TrEMBL record, chain A:
Annotated protein name in UniProt: Cbb3-type cytochrome oxidase assembly protein CcoS
Any one Pfam family match given in the protein's UniProt record, by short name: FixS
Naturally occurring in which organism (per UniProt): Marinifilum caeruleilacunae
InterPro entries to which the protein is assigned, alphabetical: Cyt_oxidase_maturation_cbb3
Membrane-spanning parts: 6-26
Keywords: Membrane, Transmembrane, Transmembrane helix
Amino acid sequence: MSVLFVLIGVSMIVAGGFLFGFLWAVKKGQYDDSYSPSVRILFEDKEKKSEELLELENTAKKNHKS
Amino acid sequence: MANMQQETKNQICVHCGDDCGKHPVMWNDKPFCCNGCSTVYQLLHENELCSYYDFEANPGIKIETARFKEKFAFLDEDEIANQLYDFSEGNIRKLNLYIPAIHCSSCIWLLENLNILNKGVLKSVVNFVKKEVSLTFDSEQLSIRQLAELLSSIHYVPEITLDKLQQKQNKDANKKLLYKIGIAGFCFGNIMLLSLPEYVPGNEYLETHFKNFFGMMNFFLVLPVFLYSGNDYLFSAYKAIKHRFVNIDVPISLGILTLFIQSSFEIFSGTGAGYMDSLTGLIFFLLIGKWYQNRTYQALSFERDYRSYFPVAVSKMEKGQEVSTPIEKLKKGDIILIRNQELIPADSILTKGDAQIDYSFVTGESKPVFKEAGDQIFAGGKQMGSAIELTIEKDVVQSRLTQLWNQFEEENSEASKLNSLIDRISKHFTLIIIAIAVLSGVYWLFNDTSKAIYAFTSVLIVACPCALALSAPFALGNTMRLMGRVGIYLKSSHVIEKLNAITSIVFDKTGTITQADEVKISFKGDKLTAEDYVAVKSLTRHSTHILSSSIYDYLKDISPENVEDYHELPSMGISGKVNGREIKLGSAKFISEGISESKSLTTEVYYSVDDKVKGHFSLSNQYRHGLSDLINSLSSKYDLHVLTGDNDSERENLEKIFPASSNLRYDQSPKDKLDYINKLKSEGKKVLMIGDGLNDAGALKSSDVGISIADDVYHFSPACDAILESSKFSDLTRFLSITKKSIWIVKLSFLLSFMYNFVGLYFAIQGILSPIVAALLMPISSVSIVAFTTITTNLIVKNRENQINRKKSDRMEMYQTSKSVQLN
C-alpha cells in the first residue's frame, strides 16, 4: 500500500505540470483574443512571405541603384 | 484574384462593397466606388498584398473624406507620443492602437503584414476582440506619426484620444482572476481525490498513517486557496464591516473562516477529516461565478467623456508659425487654427475667417451656424469649410461643455452597488444565520455539551451562501450576454437590476426617435419636369451642405450634368447654370425678396429657374420604424417624456405619436435636459434616458440608466450604461421585459438556494452534519443553480428572439445583419 505515497506524489507532479501550463498560457495572453488565432492559422506560410519580402527588397535595391 | 461581383444594374466596389453608381472609378478593369477605395487597392496591388481580397469579399473600409494631412501632427510631440508607448528602448517602440474599423479576417491579415508596406514596422499583432493592433516599430525608419498615417492610408484610421492616453487599462485584473481560478481548481481537484477515501464504506479500516498523510496533504493544498484565491472575499468582508454594512461577502467569509478553522482543528487533533474539499469547492465555484459576471464587452467603450471627442492636440499660432499643442496646455489668449472638420476644443472668439459651425455634437441640431469674426464660439462645434483662427477665451476644462461633464466627476458608483438585490438580502441572511447558529449552540450546550461547538460551526458552514452568491452572477451575466446577441450591449450585469426598476422613460428627439441619416423629402409647388430634376441634382452635387446632399441622395436615378458658373453663399444657397438655365436653390431670402418663409413644421429649400420661383422642397425628419407601436406598448407601463433641443415645429407629429399623458419639451439645452432628469429623480422616479449625442451626455449620466443609440456600436457614443443598436430600437419593450423576467429568475433561484440551506440546516442543527453531506450539498446546490439560471434565461431570451424574428419576417423588414460584438 505504501506505493500510494509514490503514486500521489507522481500525480501531484503531473497535475502541477498542467497547472503551470495553464498559468503560463494566461500570462502569455493566450486567453486575451479568442478569435484571431483561428483565422491566423489559415493565412499563408511564413516562408512565402519572406520570399515576397526578398523580392521587394531586391526591387527596392535595384530602384535605388538606378 | 479579387472577386469580381457583377450585378445586373450597378457594379459593386471591389474594395468596400458599396454600390459604384453609374460611373464607377475603373482601375485595372476593376470597379471602385470612389478614388479613395481605388487608391487603397492600387497601394495593395503594388505591394502584392491583394490576398487581402481573398479572405472575405469586399473587406475594405470606405472613408468619405481622406484628410489626414495634419490630423496626426500632434504625434510629432514627444510628450504625447511617449504617453502612448508601452515600451521604448533605443530605436524600438511598442504600442497598442485602437482601430474601430477592424471587422474581419482580411483586416487581421493586412494589419499583420504591415511590414510589407513599410519595413519600419517590425511586428504587428491584432487583438480582434479588443480591436487593437499591437505594433513594434523602428523609430529610425518610421516615426509614430508616419505609422498612424500609414494605417490611415489603407483606411484603418487609429483612434487616439485623450482619455485613452490617461487610463492605461488594468489588464492584469482579469488575468489575476484566471490565476486564482486555476490554482483553486487545481487544489480543489486534488483535495477531492484525497478526501474520497473518507467517503467510501469501510474507511474505518484505513490505516492511520494514510489518514494523517491525506489530512496533511489537504491542509497544505488548501493554504494557497485560502490565502490567495479566496482572499478577495475576506478583504471585501473586512472592508464592509469596517464601514458598518453587510454585503454578500460577509456570510461567505464567515463560512470560509469557519470551514478553515474547524477543518484545521480536526486534522491536527486527529478527530476527523475536515471539510477542506467543501472549502476549496466553494471558492472555486464562487470565482467562476465572478469571472462569468466580469465578462463584459471590451471593444465597446461605456466611459467616454469629452476628452474622447476632442482632438489630442490643435495647431497653435506662435509668431506666425503653427505649433501642435496638446489641448490641456492651451491657455486663455492663445490663438489656434481650426481646419475643416476639426472640433473647437474651448470656448473662444473668432478672429479670422468665416466660420460655419456644426453644433450637432452639442445640440443634436445638424444645421450649421454661420459666424463672423468677433463672434463667440462654444467648445464642441465642428468647423465646416475653410480654416479659421480663434482666440481662446476659457481653458478647456472651464468651457461650458466640459463643465457640464465635470459635475459628475466626484460622484462615485460605489453607492449604487450597495443597493443591489443580493446585498439587501445578505444583510438579513447573515443576521438570521448567526442567530440560528447561536441558538443551536446554546441548545446543545444544555443538552449535550460535546456537540455545542460542533453544531454552531456546522450551521455557519452549511449556511454559507455559495448557491446564493452564484445565482445572480450567472442569471444576470447570461442575460447580459444574450441581450448582446439581440442588439443591446450592457455595461455590466448590474444594469439589468436597474433597468428592472425603471418607472419613467425620457427620449431625446433628434437621432433617437428620429433617424439621423434619413429625411423625408417632398416638393411643393409647380410640377417639376425631368429637366428640373436633372438641374437640381447637378447643382446639389457640388455642395457639401447637409441639405444639398440630402436632396442629392433623394434624386437617386437621375444622372447629373455639367454646371457652369457655380456659386455657393454660406447659409444662403447655391446657384449655377445648367443647360443654359439659371438655377437657384436655397432659403427663401436667397431666391427672391418677395416670398416669406412660411411658418411650417419643416425645413424648406426653395427652387427657382431664371428667377421664377417654382416651389420648394420640404425636408422633415423621419421617425424610426415601429416608433408608434413601441410608444403604445410602453405608455401603459411607464410615463414617457421627450426632450428636444429643436424648436416645437414637430409638435403636431409628436403629439400624434405620444399619448396625451406624456411630457414633451422643446428648446432644451443640454443643461435643461440634465436638470429635468434630476427633477424626475427627486420626485422619486427611476429614470431611463435614451439619447445619442453629446448634448444628452449629462442627462445620460445623471439618469438611473442611460442608453445611447448608435448606428455603429464601436463609434463614438457618450458615457452610458448600455449601447443600443439603432436598428433594434423598436425592440425596446422586449428588452425591458427580458430584464423583468431575468430578475424573476434571480428571485426564484434565491428561493431554490434557500431550500438547500434548509436541508443543510436540518442536519447542522441536530449536530449530525458529516463531511460527506457538506461535500455533496455544496456542489449539488451550486451546479443546479447554475444550470437552472442558465437554462431559464436562455429560454426567455430565445422566446423573445423568435418573436422578434417572426415579427420581422411579417413586416418584411430587412435589417442589416448586426455586426457581432464579442464578449471579453
